[in-house]
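tl;dr need the bound structure. longer version: we got a ligand (iron/sulfur cluster) that a collaborator sent over and nobodys looked at where it sits. i said id run it. heres the input, straight from their email, havent touched it
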Amino acid sequence: MGQRPVVNQDECIGCGTCAEIATKTFRLNDDEKAEVIYPAGDSDDVIQEAMDSCPTEAISWEDE
Ligand code: SF4
């Protein structure tokens, strides 16, 4: 069983940092909120870095 990143849209402030770090995994949508475009788009390390860089800790791992 793996894990996938999920974004809490209520906590996201749309800074774009996660999408700059894990470019294949996250993007900002039309509401200026981050969303997952492809859960395994980047390596776990890169996704973790994006997660750690989120100012509001809006991204977390969820069991698949
Ligand atoms: S780093 Fe956090 S606050 Fe910034 S866009 Fe990504 S999820 Fe939203």
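gonna send this back to them w/ a short note. Residues 7, 12-18, 34, 54-56, 58-59 surround iron/sulfur cluster (CB under 6 Å).
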